[in-house]
Amino acid sequence: MAFVLQRWKILLVLNIIAVAGFMSFWTKCSSSRPAIPANSHSNVKRQSRYNLTIQRSSISHETLLKRLASLEDVVYRQLNGLSKSLGLIEGFGGRGTGGLPETLSPAEEANAKYLREKYGYNAYLSNKISLDRSIPDFRPSKCKKTTYPRDLPQISLIFIFVNEALSVILRSVHSAVNHTPAHLLKEIILVDDNSDDGQLKAPLEEYMSRRYPGLVKIVRNRKWEGLIRARIEGWKVATGEVTGFFDAHVEFTPSWAEPVLARIKGDRSRIILPSIDNIKHETFALEHYENSGHGYDWQLWCKYINPPKEWWDKGDVAAPIRTPAMIGCSFVAHREYFGELGLLDDGMDVYGGENIELGIRVWLCGGSMEVLPCSRVAHMARMKKPYHSDIAFPRPTQCPACGRSLDG
Ligand SMILES: [Mn+2]
Q1: Fewest CB within 10 A of the end CB: N or C in the chain?
Q2: What 8-state DSSP symbol labels residue 379?
Q3: Residue 213 CA to ligand 1 centre (angstroms)
Q4: Membrane spanning segments where (predicted)?
């Protein structure tokens, strides 16, 4: 009997709690919009506080809508691609994936001629290849097993261009972002050396501000400066501890940045050159170049050179290769150290001289220059360059770093 009484007591208490809870919920709901008489002072204060709450709630509502809109934008970009409005393609897969050769259909070929002559490469095909396509990983196998510390200096990537095809510039930027760890990528700087192509003005700016908000700076030269001074203009606005200089017709590969930044962290006076592979200008196929340094002949033409015997004797094909010269389409230097070296000679108008001049400068100043087989960047050698119709003129004949003539 006592047991049954106890059960009843428990049930009664539970019922009272449930009813009390329901009543308090009902009271709260019905008082959510209280009727307040207007002529009481304290009630006016209460009313204004109430209005403020309403206002606050409306602001947060707006913020919420903005966030939803931006989320919608992200989803739109993922599904349709921001580049679609430019007639370009984002995402993985599609034509030219894996760096395989691609060709145009006869119908496409009819439209390709004009762009090929304008840019010195098959720009029509470039527009049909995804900005995010993959390319082969040509690193020696040892590099793929190497690990690097997370704590490396940040890099500013500087791309220079004049009247380059938009899809080629965007692919350079996409592959840089895709293959550089986010915590190491300080910014991307695009230096426009006074292009007259309308696509490289507002459409480029709008794309970058929406696709990579806050990451990309665009520098516009008011007159044609040439690629040396264009690189220097990019360096002036860079804020990363390290600066990387690239043509805007390159594609990066996985883990290209870590070995470079680790070597510069070890010694800031090293100028580092990723190994270069070739993007064929007609098919956009990738061509593997063997490990090599950079030298030059008596006419000061830069050329690939086989690494010295002692390098091969060490039996480590992943080791850095010390090199007397460089290739200007892709080099990385500690930002402040590069300034201390005197940057590049701003008296040079066309390409080629810097490859030799900076090599002489850095070796004379106690630094060094090396190629890294573990860092690979693919570069497209164009059929023609926009800088001068005759690239043999004018050739560099002076070496300011040495204070003497180089024309022998
Ligand atoms: Mn180039």
Answers
A1: N
A2: E
A3: 27
A4: 7-26
Helix 166-179 vs helix 202-211: crossing angle, to nearest 10: 20
Ligand 1 center from residue 73 Cα (angstroms):
35
**CA 225 – ligand 1 centroid, Å:** 16
Q: Which CATH architecture has domain 114-405?
A: Alpha-Beta Complex (3.90)
- Please check whether residue 378 is in contact with residue 280, taking contact to mean a CB–CB distance below 8 angstroms: no
Helix (H) or strand (E) holding 203: helix 202-211
| Cα–Cα distances in angstroms (integers) from residue 345 to residues 336, 360, 362, in the given order | 16, 12, 13
Name the more confident of 22 and 241: 241
Angle formed at CA 131 by CA 80 and CA 77, multiple of 5 degrees: 25
- Domain boundary assignment for the chain: 114-405
- Look at the block and give the residue holding tokens 């100043």: 365
Mean pLDDT taken over the chain:
83
Q: 265 C-alpha vs ligand 1 centroid, how far in Å? A: 27
Give the pLDDT confidence score for residue 349 in this predicted structure: 75
**What is the 329 CA–ligand 1 centroid distance (Å)?**
5
Ligand 1: centre distance to CA 382 (Å): 7
| Residues facing residue 332 across a β-bridge | 244, 272
DSSP-derived pairing of the beta strands 242-247 and 330-334: antiparallel
CA of 163 relative to ligand 1 center, distance in Å: 13
Other Cβ atoms less than 10 A from the Cβ of 69: the count is 10
Ligand 1 center to 379 CA (angstroms): 6
CA of 310 to the centre of ligand 1 (A): 31
Over its C-alpha atoms, the chain yields an Rg (Å, rounded) of 31
CA 308–ligand 1 middle distance (angstroms): 26
Q: For the chain, what is the total number of helices (H) and then of strands (E)?
A: 12, 14
* Tens of pLDDT, residues 261-308: 999 999 999 999 999 999 999 999 999 999 999 998 888 888 889 998
pLDDT at 56: 54
Burial class of residue 106 (count of CB atoms within 10 Å of its CB; 0-12, 13-18, 19+): exposed
